[in-house]
Amino acid sequence: MQNETPVIRAEDLTYIYSQGTPYQKVALDHVNLSIETGAMVGVIGHTGSGKSTLIQHFNGLLRPTSGKIYIDGEDMWAQPSQIRRFRFKVGLVFQYPEYQLFEETVYKDIAFGPKNMGMSESEIDTAVRRSAQFVGLSEDQLDKSPFELSGGQKRRVAIAGVLAMNPEVLILDEPTAGLDPMGRDMILGQIREYHQQQGNTVLLVSHSMEDVAKYCPKALVVNDSKLFLYDTVEEVFSHAQELTGMGLAVPQVSSIFLRLRQLGYPVSERVFTVGQAQDELLRVLKEGKGDE
Ligand SMILES: Nc1ncnc2c1ncn2[C@@H]1O[C@H](COP(=O)(O)OP(=O)(O)O)[C@@H](O)[C@H]1O
Ligand SMILES: [Mg+2]
């Protein structure tokens, strides 16, 4: 593992919006980071911390004010005219992507990315149907106008459009924002399945610590334009106090279990839901009895 080239590496990445104007804003401040190929990472941080700015650098939508980004070891901006290649390699689903649908039919909207990549008609057709099915859209919805669909369905069209390009890295910026719990679980479940089936790297921006804990083995925390931590969810959540200070609440049960561990109880680190807490307490109580 140690010799493997990380899929994404940021080196002293700094980004300043409106530099040299009164509105100047340092949105990323000397970020250093390596993400290993095939990881599934939750990106968390308070609103305005710099999450969207960070991920937009990974597919070349933003260019660093200073510092470098490497994709598979390749300096992204070595030849700016080549940046398109990276946009196909790293697929980005924006926040509220449904506002960016614009074609006459769902089919055409999903086909937009693959077409741009220069896929053949038959490859496009396979990719469109496969990704539509994957996100739970039916065949007859493909001929509809995207504007006839519900909010949740539109969101799925937008996600299918990026999946159809089969990007090496899939990045989603708060893909569940504004959805009800059922729509949320469905989309996150599909993203997890995509990750498991393809083994591709996935970055999931979320403000829900519960969702990150449930779906992502690793978490990246951005705070005030800086990278605070990139580690396993267990390790990240063990910094409960600092996270709370940043306005990021660790799930309550996780705080309780962290405290129990500090007090010397042999409880698991992976307790993020009340259901898991119940199972874990029963297990520990049973084992405790066995010792007597
Ligand atoms: N286009 C922009 N022009 C100026 N400032 C911006 C722009 N986009 C974001 N910012 C500022 O940069 C900071 C980081 O924003 P953003 O990356 O969107 O954070 P997050 O996604 O974590 O909410 C915020 O202070 C935000 O107001
Ligand atoms: Mg954002």
Pick out its properties.
binds adenosine-5'-diphosphate; 10 strands; 11 helices; 292 residues; Rossmann fold; binds magnesium ion; single chain; 4-stranded antiparallel β-sheet; alpha/beta
How would you portray this structure in words?
The chain is of the alpha/beta class. Among the domains are: 140 residues, P-loop containing nucleotide triphosphate hydrolases (Rossmann fold), CATH 3.40.50; 42 residues, no CATH class. 40% of the residues lie in helices and 21% in strands. The protein has 11 helices and 10 strands. Strands 6-7-8-3-9-10 form a 6-stranded mixed β-sheet, with helices on both faces. A 4-stranded antiparallel β-sheet has the order 2-1-4-5, with helices on one face. It binds adenosine-5'-diphosphate and magnesium ion (MG). The site of adenosine-5'-diphosphate has 12 residues, from strand 2 and helix 1.
What is the gyration radius calculated from CA atoms? 21 Å
Distance separating the two termini: 43 Å
| Biggest pleated-sheet summary | 6 strands, mixed
Which structural class matches the secondary elements?
Answer: alpha/beta
Shape: globular
Task: Report the CATH C-level class of the domain at 1-94 and 171-180 and 201-236.
Answer: Alpha Beta
Summarize the topology:
Blueprint: E1 8-17, E2 25-35, E3 40-44, H1 51-58, E4 66-71, E5 74-75, H2 83-89, E6 90-93, H3 106-116, H4 121-134, H5 151-163, E7 169-173, H6 181-198, E8 201-205, H7 209-215, E9 218-223, E10 226-232, H8 233-237, H9 240-245, H10 252-262, H11 274-291
Parallel strand pairs: 3-8, 3-9, 6-7, 7-8
Antiparallel strand pairs: 1-2, 1-4, 4-5, 9-10
Helix pairs in contact: 3-4, 3-5, 4-5
